[in-house]
Amino acid sequence: MSKKGRPRSPVTQKSILDASYGLLLENGFDDITIEKIAERAGVSKATIYKWWPNKAAVVMDGFFSAAADRLPIPDTGSVYEDVLIHATNLARFMVSPDGKSIKELIGQGQLDSTLKEAIQTHYIQPRRSEAMQLLERGVRSGELNAGLNLALGVDLLYGPMFYRMLVTSGSLDDEGVKDIVMTAFNGLKAGVDKPSV
To answer: How confident is the model at residue 42 (pLDDT cuts 50, 70, 90)?
Structure first.
């Protein structure tokens, strides 16, 4: 989140975000400092602090800026196909050399509350919001159950991907993602009766 004041210069902002992302890929989060970002971007530390409250915020903005172009929201007319494309693109990004940085950041976030909040705000919540939009579209079209809990649906679809990435080191190839999405959709699609309690 930026602080109030003079509007950001798009050129200066891009140079700062590119610098923070480049440093993240090269050296990891721990080694990044505001001084190093400022030096690489050719700006003062004051300029960075004017727009971001701390290192975690600017690094996550840099990461999100790089990730956003690779994760467009599809609209094929089929919610299943849209979610499959979205989930596959997310998995491909997460296992790429660039995307593996998110694994480090999530791990570091368990020890750094500021970083954890930045990850939630700049990466996790935007991804969840996109996925919920896809599921909401499916509810409106009648492909998914009308009473679907959207947040829980997102957890069922995307949670296994993060579990595999962070815990089991299981496969996140295209077929693995397709299996996850198909299995989850069998319980989410319209016409599936909920079990009686």
So the answer is: very high
Note whether 85 and 28 are same-domain residues: no
* Nearest-angstrom CA–CA distance, 52 and 57: 6
Task: Tell me the sheet residues that pair with 144.
Answer: 189
Query: Is 138 within the bounds of a domain?
Result: yes
Name the strand (E) or helix (H) holding 87.
helix 79-95
- The residue written with tokens 């109030």 in the block is 4
CA-CA distance, 131 to 137, in Å (whole number)? 10
- Whole-model pTM: value is 0.73
The single-letter code of the amino acid at 65 is S
- Residues in a beta bridge with 189: 144
Give the burial class of 30: count Cβ atoms within 10 A of its Cβ; 0-12 exposed, 13-18 middle, 19 or more buried: exposed
Based on the domain organization, do 174 and 134 belong to the same domain? yes
Range of the domain at 77: 70-186
Total domains present in the chain = 2
Residue 96 is classified by DSSP as S
